[in-house]
Amino acid sequence: MLLLPRSDEADGPGGYRRSIAALCVLLTAAVAPVAPALAAEGDTFSSARELEDPSLPQGAAQGAGETAAGEDSVAAAEAPAAYTVKIEGVDDSTVRSLLESSSQLVTLASKPPATQAALVRRIQGDFDRFRAVLRSEGYYDSLIDYRIDGQATPMAVTVMVDTGPTYRLQSYDVIFQGESEEEPRVPPPLSALGLRLDQRARAADVVGAEQRLLTTLADEAHPLADMTKREAIVDHNDRTMRVTVHIDPGPFTRFGPLAILGLETVREDYVRTLVPWQQGDPYDQRKVDAFRAKLIKAGLFTSVVIDRPDHLDENGELPMTLQLIEGKQRSVGVGAKYYTSEGPAGEVFWEHRNLFGRDEDLRITLELGQIRQQGTIDFTKPNWRRPDQDLLGEVKATRQTSEAFDEIGVSSVAKLRRPLSETWTGSIGTSLEWSQLKDQNGQNTSTLVGFPLEVYRDATDSLLDPRVGMRLRLEATPYLGWFDGAAHFLSGAAIVSGYQPLDRDKLYVLAGRAKIGSIVGQSRQDIPANKRFYAGGGDSVRGYEFQKIGPLDDDNDPIGGRSVVELNAELRAHVWGKFSLVPFVDGGNVYDPIYPDFSEELRWAAGIGARYDTVIGPVRFDIAFPINPPPENHDKFQFYISLGQAF
Q: Which of 85, 183, 251, 637 is buried most deeply by CB count within 10 Å?
């Protein structure tokens, strides 16, 4: 409903000039592919110039000076009216994009009309679409002209848009039906609805506010709330909009019985353990959304639909229905990489994601490389003993041959992992490791019991190719055991990475990573070689040989250290399609003391990389050149091919 008085005079300055007759219709239609217009076709929000006869191809209002020959002559053209199109006068890239996506001139440019007269009709057809877009973006007094350069080949069509002044949101009021005078319902603040007074009067924002308002009511046990009436008034004198919505909150609602459909191999009792409510609890849409997110995260289902009727049952509760479609629960995969200093390496894995019917995950991985050969069995039991607590187990056998040390060993670890917040996760566990090691000090056997602790924060937008956000990992493991005598030491590290987009579309991303680590409690020679810190290589400081940064023995073989620093910086530029160019700089060093000795210079390298995006992550190609290598470094560059970003 519109409450906008009109005068008997023609539209013009003074008083209210025009109404938005179809605001209610288009707002309730939500967001259209272009953007929701505030009025339907045929409304009266055109400027005085726009109200001139749109069938005339000539005249100041339509800007068609180049078509003065008239329709009779252009209709006689034998060839299709091929043309180019340009939209002028719109600086806002979002509005320009909306205009272009709504324009038949743009979308049908490859299919020119048969005559120039038909081209004129196509241009004029865009006018109403453009006005709808502009109104939806808060421009209610726009002017639109066009001109055709018939001398150009193909003809050049220019659409000139004057958006006019920006209209602002003056008020947004919510009226609840049937509210108690003693305890009136208080609507949420405008900030919670995504609005603020004096913002541009965009239709999408108004529609979004209505949806957020209904969602808030659903969070507060009113899922059957409904908007019964909307009033919008646009004042052309002060260029403002006032909006009033009337809401029927519906009855106070409680969760009813839950029916689960579509299960085949997943056990129903497991699915019910994930339900975050009990029958009879007050309805809360946030719990429904969290339940859906858990089921999707489990990776067992290709479809998760939670439905409810629009009325209460005979017990005054709202019954729920969960419809599931199970996906494939077994998979096989392979991977490969090649680093010049480490040689080729390949990996194959087999995974079962529902081993006993309750989302248990078993993964067997075999890695074969020039330096390391390793077999791993990983097992995950989700929701062990309590919701959101996972039991993790791993058994691993390793054989490694490098210039730093040779190793044959087996290890096992068991952990409990639990979310600490929306972005934080923590884990604690115990490990048992046995290794036979050979390094510059000879051959020794290491038997260690560890107690790994980890806190991890992930606030990025993607696991494999993050473009915004930050990650932080803090890890510490106390070790007790035997290595050529009693051994007891603490190994810890902090690793942080950040991703900052430089443009709105996240095509250019500045990425950085820093790592610092320390081992305390034993001298270097009393720490097993496979527990010391090393740097250099494709997953550390590119441009240097594997593990070759830091202390070396008389044969120029790395001996590791008790502290480490690594720094990485990249500019990830998506330059064309799925291809990206990535210039980068890496630096780092390893030190014998337990704290980094920054008086000793970092070893730096620089390089250029390329990325090709795939469904399983980007394929990485990097070439890196050492900047200040030690005299013992003889390689001029290193080359790396692998799957996934460097960090």
A: 85
